[in-house]
Amino acid sequence: MGFLDKLKSLFAGGGGGGGETQAQAIYLRCKVCGEPLQARVDLRNDLSPQWSDAGGSDYPDHYSTHKTVIGTQQCYAPIELDITYDRRKQVESEHVTGGTILTEEEYRQALAEWEAKGNAAQ
Predict the structure, then answer these.
(1) pLDDT at residue number 54
(2) Whole-structure pTM value
(3) How far is residue 85 CA from its own chain's centroid?
(4) How far from the centroid of its chain's Cα atoms is residue 22's Cα?
(5) Which residues have a Cβ under 8 Å from the Cβ of 3 and sit 6 or more positions away?
(6) Which residue did the predictor score with more confidence, 113 or 8?
(7) How many other C-beta atoms can be found within 10 angstroms of the C-beta atom of residue 96?
(8) Engineered SS bond to 85: which of 34, 58, 63, 65, CB 3.0-4.6 Å?
(9) Residues 117, 103, 40, CA angle at the centre, nearest 5°?
(10) 24 exposed, middle or buried (CB, 10 Å; 0-12, 13-18, 19+)?
(11) How far apart are the C-alpha atoms of 99 and 72, rounded to whole Å?
(12) Phi/psi at 27 (5° precision)
């Protein structure tokens, strides 16, 4: 049974990784309806490498990603999110159109307020 547990763990995302964070949560609020939203950036698969020079380095100077986030409740207005990361995959800049970026604490508070108004997902 140990083999099956390991196999299940592998497909459930529990295998490998070495403890390094491989995803980043981004918290947003729609400017149209106010819905708090959460997006996920997979730091292994969602980032596009970018080179500043044509010097031919094997390692990118930075990375970027673009996400379009759509609400789940009322307006379905798209929120466009562009993030630039340094070569260590730390956020350098964030630009959002159609919404605002929240901290995790602000998101949790906004979500509680949203649900208290009766806007919880059905």
Answers:
(1) 65
(2) 0.74
(3) 13
(4) 11
(5) none
(6) 113
(7) 18
(8) 63
(9) 90
(10) middle
(11) 14
(12) -110, 130
Q: How far apart are CA 28 and CA 96, in angstroms?
A: 9
Q: What is the pLDDT of residues 57-68, one digit of tens each?
A: 778 889 999 999
Could you tell me the pLDDT band of residue 9, with boundaries at 50, 70 and 90? low
Locus of tokens 């529990």: 14
Q: What is the pLDDT of residues 83-122, one digit of tens each?
A: 999 989 999 999 999 999 999 999 999 999 999 987 765 4
SS3 3: helix
Q: Which phi-psi region, left, alpha or beta, contains residue 67 (left: φ > 0; alpha: ψ -120 to 50)?
A: beta
Give the rounded distance of the alpha carbon of 7 from its chain centre: 27
CB 43 within 8 A of CB 89: yes
